[in-house]
């Protein structure tokens, strides 16, 4: 049986709750409820499908990721978007961060299948967000202030079992 997996950074729980408020706003005012299903995170490697029997191999590759990086802060500053009419996305925008980019490249060394461009973000609205509602929401969120930061101390490997469940973590150590 196939399962979905992905690798991500999760902010602290109180920040996940803050970001959930933006998701609720989009659900209530812009008909976008799908984003409420997922906790706030930054994707390091997007969801991929594998046979459940291969999970040990996924764990092995995950443990080989070089995380000899000093824990670092990510600053979130305002909102951004991917204005694709077929699949618009609204997100919380992290500042450029060389440590985050380094971590992504280290993940990519072990998980090097598929093409994936790295645009770190924390999704607020997507999937069932229509183009018309995206345009209305973007009018509000383009200039909306949201500034905070959090310490990245670990990365997570998650599996989809009806919802995303962390199945392994790897701490940053330097």
TrEMBL record:
InterPro entries according to UniProt: 2H_phosphoesterase_YjcG-like, Cyclic_Pdiesterase, RNA_CPDase
Pfam families given in the database record: 2_5_RNA_ligase2
A molecular function (GO) term: RNA 2',3'-cyclic 3'-phosphodiesterase activity
Keywords, ordered alphabetically: Hydrolase, Ligase
Annotated PANTHER family: PHOSPHOESTERASE SAOUHSC_00951-RELATED, PHOSPHOESTERASE YJCG-RELATED
Protein name: 2'-5' RNA ligase
Native source organism of the sequence: Chryseobacterium culicis
Taxonomic lineage: Bacteria, Pseudomonadati, Bacteroidota, Flavobacteriia, Flavobacteriales
């Amino acid at each position: 049986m196939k399962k979905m997996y992905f690798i991500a950074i999760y902010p602290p729980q109180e920040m996940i709750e803050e970001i959930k408020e933006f998701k609720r706003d989009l659900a209530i005012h812009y008909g976008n409820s799908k984003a409420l299903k997922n906790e706030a995170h930054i994707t390091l490697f997007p969801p991929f499908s594998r046979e459940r029997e291969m999970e040990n191999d996924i764990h092995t590759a995950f443990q080989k990721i070089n995380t000899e990086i000093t824990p670092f802060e990510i600053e979130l500053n305002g909102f951004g978007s991917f204005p694709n009419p077929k699949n618009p996305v609204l997100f919380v925008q992290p500042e450029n961060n060389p440590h985050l980019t380094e971590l992504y490249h280290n993940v990519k060394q072990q998980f090097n299948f598929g093409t994936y461009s790295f645009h770190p973000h924390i999704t607020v609205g997507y999937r069932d967000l229509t183009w018309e509602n995206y345009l209305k929401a973007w009018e509000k969120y383009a200039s909306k202030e949201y500034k905070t930061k959090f310490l990245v101390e670990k990365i997570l490997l998650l599996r989809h079992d009806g919802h995303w469940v962390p199945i392994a973590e790897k701490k940053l150590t330097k």
